[in-house]
Design brief:
Layout (H helix, E strand, L loop, with lengths): L2 E13 L5 E13 L3 E5 L6 H9 L6 E6 L2 E2 L7 E4 L11 H11 L4 H14 L15 H14 L4 E5 L7 H18 L2 E5 L3 H7 L2 E5 L6 E6 L14 H23 L1
Bound molecules: adenosine-5'-triphosphate and magnesium ion.
Magnesium ion (MG) binds next to helix 1.
């Protein structure tokens, strides 16, 4: 299958107003195929969010380039949907208006806006909450709204930066299953950053492990677990073997990061 996203020699160095520079990313080369579900693990501060933001077009690389279906990314676009850890809904819009936001921006006819929004509201289990405002919803429900909003735009690729990081464990597991179900049905390409090794394995078709800062992709591991995935897979020998391997790799990098 062809590569949809090509990250080619992408590095990023931040320079403070005082002239001090921080290299967040070493040149990163990474290819993502269509419908891949790639999870990214790595120590805190190694540049994972920086890389995602560059792919989103919210930041730019110091060197290198990112191509989406052969086109260089030069800014944000509807072909990429972003979901962050903290809730980023518009507080003055209700759930339905939040989900329709991008569709309205694109001047989609009213009937189509409604149809797409309704479809994804049902998909993430928020029927009956259309008229509620974000602050009236739980964290999990807000995150489901953010996912529905990202999906409603029909992006080629979903960029998710610790989307379930702020949720309690029970809700988190439900959200993992929900997102996997959507991924299996909608055939999306996903880049998903997490600190949770179980989550990284459970969700992924491939796990990319970042080195300590300045980050680079240290290793990639294919996850060959069956679909549809059920949480009981976490107790299988294949899963535990992957977990042991990744735990060791992350530990080594986190120790390297602490030495800085
Ligand atoms: N806008 C910015 N200006 C200056 N430095 C920045 C900026 N954004 C990130 N950095 C620096 O780049 C490095 C990587 O940050 P980044 O947020 O990408 O890490 P991360 O891997 O997402 O960490 P975490 O796992 O804690 O979220 C850090 O040293 C951070 O301080
Ligand atoms: Mg981050």
């Amino acid at each position: 299958m062809s590569n949809q996203l090509s990250i080619r020699g992408v590095s990023r160095t931040f320079t403070s107003p005082g002239g001090q520079s921080t290299q967040a990313l070493q040149p990163v080369d990474f290819e993502v195929r269509k419908n891949d579900f790639v999870t990214i693990l790595g120590p805190s501060g190694c540049g994972k969010s920086t890389l995602l933001r560059i792919v989103a077009g919210l930041d730019y690389p110091t060197s290198g380039q990112v191509l989406l279906d052969g086109q260089t990314i030069e800014g944000p676009g509807a072909d990429r949907g972003m979901v962050f850890q903290s809730y980023t809904l518009f507080p003055w819009l209700n759930i339905e208006q939040n989900i329709r936001f991008g569709l309205r921006e694109r001047n989609l006819p009213e009937a189509q806006q409604k149809e797409r929004a309704d479809y994804f509201i049902a998909k993430v289990g928020l029927r009956g909450f259309e008229q509620h405002f974000p602050k009236q919803l739980s964290g999990g429900m807000q995150q489901r709204t953010a996912i529905a909003r990202a999906l409603a735009n029909d992006p080629k690729i979903l960029l998710m930066d610790e989307p379930f990081g702020a949720l309690d464990n029970q809700t988190r597991v439900l959200m993992q299953e929900l997102l996997l179900g959507i991924w299996e049905a909608e055939q999306k390409t996903v880049l998903f950053v997490t600190h949770d090794i179980d989550e990284a394995i459970f969700m992924a078709s491939r796990v990319a492990v970042f080195s300590a800062r300045p980050g680079r992709i240290k290793s990639e591991i294919a996850v060959d677990l069956p679909h549809p995935r059920h949480y009981t897979v976490k107790t299988t020998p294949a899963f535990m073997e992957l977990k042991a391997r990744l735990t060791e790799e992350i530990r080594a990098e986190s120790m390297a990061a602490a030495d800085h």
